[in-house]
């Protein structure tokens, strides 16, 4: 009798554990993006780079990352399925917001790059991604762009 009640309790937990453990999140096509950002020919460190569907197709996903000290970035899905991009056309938004000093309470964020590169309606930056690895040409930003 003890074994049967233990089995009744254990079996549902075992099945649930297997279902959760075997779930690797999303399946299918995804794009890994490798790129860099320059401003007037110099690498832009700590810039935020965001990819949004150009044709307003949320199923293609969105992603964001920061550039390293050489202005390079990589976007790929993590273990929580963040930064999952499907193949398709994307607008690219780039900004660089310096850290705000702790004594500057209420100080507005200041984008060190021309805001043109961070506005969905104005960004000239686009990328067409395919399944797998996408090595992009550098996003070459121009300072004081009008």
Could you explain how this protein is built, in words?
The longest helix has 21 residues, at 2-22. Strands 1, 2, 5, 8 and 9 form a 5-stranded mixed sheet that branches. A 4-stranded antiparallel sheet has the order 4-3-6-7, with no helix packed on it. 14% of the residues lie in helices and 30% in strands. It has a single domain, classed as Immunoglobulin-like, CATH 2.60.40.10. It has one helix at 2-22; strands spanning 31-39, 42-43, 48-53, 63-66, 72-75, 88-95, 126-129, 132-135, 139-141. It is α+β, with helices and mostly antiparallel strands. The protein is built from 1 helix and 9 strands; from the N terminus they run αβββββββββ.
Rg from alpha-carbon coordinates: 22 Å
- CATH fourth-tier homologous superfamily: Immunoglobulins
Shape category: globular
Question: Which structural category do the helix and sheet elements fall into?
Answer: alpha+beta
CATH architecture: Sandwich
The secondary-structure element order is HEEEEEEEEE
At the first level of CATH, the class is Mainly Beta
**CATH-assigned fold name:** Immunoglobulin-like
**What gap, in angstroms, lies between the N and C termini?**
81 Å
Helix content: 10-25%
Mean pLDDT: 83
Please give the number of β-strands.
9
Q: Uncertain spans, ≥5 residues at pLDDT below 50?
A: 16-25
- The fraction of residues in strands falls at 25-35%
Characterize the biggest β-sheet: 5 strands, mixed
Give the count of helical stretches. 1
Domains, number: 1
